[in-house]
Predict the 3D structure of the following.
Amino acid sequence: MQSAAQTQGRNIRHYSNYLSERARAYRETKIDWVRAKEPRLEKLSVDKGLLRETEVVQHQLNALLKCDVMEAEPENEITITVFRLLVLDLLALFQALNQALINILGKAPPSSSIRSAQAN
């Protein structure tokens, strides 16, 4: 069993890794996907980088999901605060990713044209 100090150190490392990924995402796209007010991925075209920016959001979301700060029963304010911040970021990233996927699916050809192309 880990001590409280070891658990806090692990939680801080996980959160630090997530923040590093968030900074990398900002460096690549010049957008903080958590604080973005405009629905950029909803309007972005494939030519302007929709797929690349969607992948960046996916990487940031994956890094956030690796932060398992609630592995044990929360015992202090730091763990609860980190969890709260992660949930808020998760909601914002999930919204951005949903906008991107709706945009991508809207640009895909209808399934009937795909089937007719495969039949020929």
